[in-house]
From TrEMBL:
Carbamylation allows a single lysine to coordinate two divalent metal cations. One of its GO terms (cellular component) is cytosol. The gene is hyuA. Keywords: Hydrolase, Metal-binding. The lineage of its organism: Bacteria, Bacillati, Vulcanimicrobiota, Vulcanimicrobiia, Vulcanimicrobiales. Belongs to the metallo-dependent hydrolases superfamily. Hydantoinase/dihydropyrimidinase family. GO terms for molecular function: hydrolase activity, acting on carbon-nitrogen (but not peptide) bonds, in cyclic amides; metal ion binding. This is D-hydantoinase. Its cofactor is Zn(2+). Residues 1-22, 471-492 are annotated as: Disordered. Residues 78-465 form the Amidohydrolase-related domain. Pfam families: Amidohydro_1. It comes from the Bacteria.
Length: 492
């Protein structure tokens, strides 16, 4: 496999920067050609050139003549549809602080990792309107996002006014998914009555309900017990949220969806036991979808024991589980029992942010910086290790999220008419992940020191090159909001 860039049609200027060298042709150029690569979609793998015009894919053919077009060299590389991260939290307030990455830094880091669309959670607060929550998040993203973005809405209360807004959010605002929390009592958690009402409203109008499945009532008790026993270290975050409480909530949510006749998407499945609950629901023929995240494949509960409060960097909910859970989650990704791969990027510095919980694990802001390395982790631990194929990688990290969240086929595939969101991926490149070199703002990286193969050579967003050999070449503010079409059940 060829690693470096071919210099055909390119030369380096004095600053060492590669430039296209077709000045007389560029004036009349009508498009861009991604040339000489192996195109990989969720279903097919084939050698082809891709012609891009006006930001969309105009032709896919074996050998498109280069004349007149700007050429992007994909020789020796894999050509993926831009990856879609269905689960991000940028510029989000949490536990008295705010995530360190906003829509500018977060989307630049995403782009450098091969992600060309994110779906971020607009956070509803009790008593406020959904419209206002969405407006707040539009303001956070506009002028900052370097890649395209869509929104999910969280739902914090089941007031009639809130439920009545759901059809309008779907039909007019392009939000097709609504997330409810079964945990974070007194903050985000809603009761079963609310979950049931949201499920029914969403199902009726073309919405998909997402659920954070952990039993928040019981967790409140276990956390209080631990703290009153003087157990304040990060590892008690994990110990107070046992796997049974995730499995119970997952089963309960699935049963509620079953009674409501609604589809359901379970976010950030962390354990074998919870994933089994999803498999059981699907065996009953229910439209249940499961998502997992890179951290649950490669980090585990022993990370909470890291010295010097570094264990706090791994505090997230659900917490990290055991090594045996990692293997089961990977197998379920392979077998089609889990369907989407999100980052759950929610980044905080250790210094000044995670430290809020220095003497009380329950005050450690939950989350980790994962938006940049999501695809690399799945490529390494899925594809390179031989567990999943390239087509499955694309399905899990791009096509399935696009289908579930109403962006397909504009996003999530390489097809004529689709947006030219394209990743030219060098499969043989090798790098070591580190907070010292990553592009996220956080002062820590939970994958620190891990070696991964594969990295983007070029990333294109609607035909523009936004990442070139590890350098961001796009522009914050050029990302465009994408409306999601209403949810329709899909066979995944
Ligand atoms: Zn999340």
């Amino acid at each position: 496999m060829q690693h470096g860039l071919s210099d055909r049609g390119l030369h380096r200027d004095g600053a060492g920067r590669r430039r296209h060298h077709f000045p007389h042709l560029e004036r009349t150029a009508i498009g861009t050609i991604v040339k000489g690569g192996t195109v990989v979609t969720a279903t097919d793998t084939f050698r082809a050139d891709i012609l891009i015009e006006d930001g969309t894919i105009a032709a896919i053919a074996h050998a498109i003549p280069a004349a007149g077009h700007t050429t992007v060299d994909a020789s020796g590389a894999l050509v993926f549809p831009g990856f879609i991260d269905p689960h991000t939290h940028l510029d989000m307030p949490f536990g008295g602080t705010t995530t360190i990455d906003d829509f500018a830094s977060g989307t630049v880091a995403a782009a450098l990792g091969g992600t060309t669309t994110i779906i971020d959670f607009a956070l509803h607060t009790k008593g406020d309107s959904l419209a206002n929550a969405l407006k707040t998040w539009h303001a956070k993203a506009a002028g900052k996002a370097a890649i395209d973005y869509a929104f999910h809405l969280t739902i914090a209360d089941g007031r009639p006014e809130t439920l009545e807004e759901i059809p309008e959010m779907i039909a007019r605002e392009g939000v097709n998914s609504f997330k409810v929390f079964m945990a974070y009592k007194h903050v985000l958690q809603v009761d079963d009555e609310t979950i049931f009402k949201v499920l029914k409203a969403a199902a009726r109008y073309g919405g998909l309900v997402q659920v954070h499945a952990e039993n928040g009532d019981v967790i409140e008790v276990t956390v209080k017990e631990a703290l009153s026993a003087g157990q304040t270290a990060p590892k008690y975050h994990g110990l107070t949220r046992p796997v049974e409480l995730e499995a119970e909530a997952t089963s309960r949510a699935i049963r509620l969806a079953e009674v409501a006749g609604a589809p359901l998407y379970v976010v950030h499945v962390s354990s074998a036991m919870a994933a089994d609950a999803i498999s059981d629901g699907r065996k009953r023929g229910l439209p249940i979808y499961g998502e997992t995240c890179p951290q649950y494949l490669v980090c585990d509960a022993s990370d909470y024991d890291r010295p010097d409060f570094a264990g706090a960097n791994y505090v997230m909910s659900p917490p990290l589980r055991e090594k045996r859970d990692q293997a089961v989650l990977l197998k379920k990704l392979k077998n089609g029992e889990l369907h989407a791969f999100g980052s759950d990027h929610c980044s905080f510095n250790n210094c000044g942010q995670k430290e809020l919980g220095k003497n009380d694990f329950s005050k450690i802001p939950n989350g980790a910086p994962t938006i940049e390395d999501r695809v690399a982790i799945l490529f390494e631990h899925g594809v390179v290790k031989g567990v999943i194929g390239l087509n499955q990688l694309v399905a899990l990290a791009s096509t399935n999220p696009a289908k579930l969240f109403g962006l397909f086929p504009r996003k999530g595939t390489i097809a004529v008419g689709s947006d030219a969101d394209i990743v030219v991926w060098d499969p043989g490149a090798e790098r070591t992940i580190s907070a010292a070199t990553h592009h996220m703002k956080a002062d820590n990286n939970i994958f620190e020191g891990m070696t991964v193969h594969g990295r983007p050579r070029f990333v294109l967003s609607r035909g523009r090159i936004i990442a070139d050999d590890g350098r961001f070449t796009g522009e914050p503010g050029t990302g465009i909001h994408q409306k999601s079409a209403p949810f329709r059940p899909v066979q995944l």
